[in-house]
Write a structure and sequence with these properties.
The complex is a heterodimer of chains A (115) and B (114). The radius of gyration of chain A is 14 Å and the shape is globular. In chain A, strands 2, 4, 5, 9, 10 and 11 form a six-stranded mixed beta sheet that branches. In chain A, strands 1-3-8-7-6 form a five-stranded antiparallel beta sheet, with no helix packed on it. Chain A contains no helices and eleven strands. Chain B is mostly beta strands and 114 residues long. In chain B, 0% of the residues lie in helices and 49% in strands. Chain B is built from no helices and eleven strands. In chain B, strands 2, 4, 5, 6, 9, 10 and 11 form a seven-stranded mixed beta sheet that branches. Chain B is globular. The mean pLDDT of chain B is 95. The chains are: A mainly beta (115), B mainly beta (114).
């Protein structure tokens, strides 16, 4: 079945610097990769997603890159701000008839922005 | 438009007690999911539903049951609560399969089993 590994588990960056979080997946048939942000005590919320027909997607300071050959995708946050402090989760879908409709989440990255 | 609403927000149970968590969505989504979140383990799927009247098992279904009698509601039941079920429970819904559509989460239910 699908396995999603996320690194690092914690990340501390200076305000204004960039942050990169990487996820690897095992199912080569996976074709949809969302990223969720969860602030302390809040619900996870989608911040960006990418489909396998593109290699990169940007939304203001956030970007996601996908390397299907290597089976990894990364979240890039530029010009980090205090409100970027949160836990970030990547996810990848399970494929196959018996696994349809499900995704597997990574274990999360706690990002802290130092003032 | 409330999105996904979970009740209750907090609950403390004694071992062996039963309870039901309610999830309601007003977005007319077909797919609904129940996850549990434990420290350092991300979100793990308990059960899910691809439409009214249907349910299926996820990664960690043991000790839980679900029902989807109405399209907008997805209930999660604990038949005999155990301390290992202490967790934060999140409900989510999506317009299509989570395999290619974003999920909308509720605020969560923090459940403690003593």
């Amino acid at each position: 079945g699908e396995n999603v590994e996320q690194h690092p588990s914690t990340l501390s960056v200076q305000e204004g610097d960039s942050a990169v979080i990487k996820c690897t997946y095992s199912d080569s048939a996976s074709n949809y990769f969302p990223w969720y942000k969860q602030e302390l005590g809040k619900r996870p919320q989608l911040i960006i997603d990418i489909r396998s027909n593109v290699g990169e997607k940007k939304d203001q300071r956030i970007a996601v890159t996908l390397n299907k050959t290597a089976k990894h995708f990364s979240l890039h946050i530029t010009e980090t701000q205090p409100e970027d402090s949160a836990v970030y989760f990547c996810a990848a879908p399970l494929t196959g008839y018996s696994s349809a409709s499900k995704i597997i989440f990574g274990s999360g990255t706690r990002l802290s922005i130092r003032p | 438009n409330a999105g996904v609403t979970q009740t209750p927000k907090f609950r403390v149970l004694k071992t062996g007690q039963s309870m039901t968590l309610l999830c309601a969505q007003d977005m007319n989504h077909e797919y609904m999911y129940w996850y549990r979140q434990d420290p350092g383990m991300g979100l793990r799927l308990i059960h899910y539903s691809v439409g009214e009247g249907t349910t299926a098992k996820g990664e960690v279904p043991d000790g839980y049951n679900v029902s989807r009698l109405k399209k907008q509601n997805f209930l999660l039941g604990l038949e005999s609560a155990a301390p290992s079920q202490t967790s934060v429970y999140f409900c989510a819904s999506s317009v299509g399969t989570a395999s290619n559509q974003p999920q909308h989460f509720g605020d969560g239910t923090r459940l403690s089993i003593l």
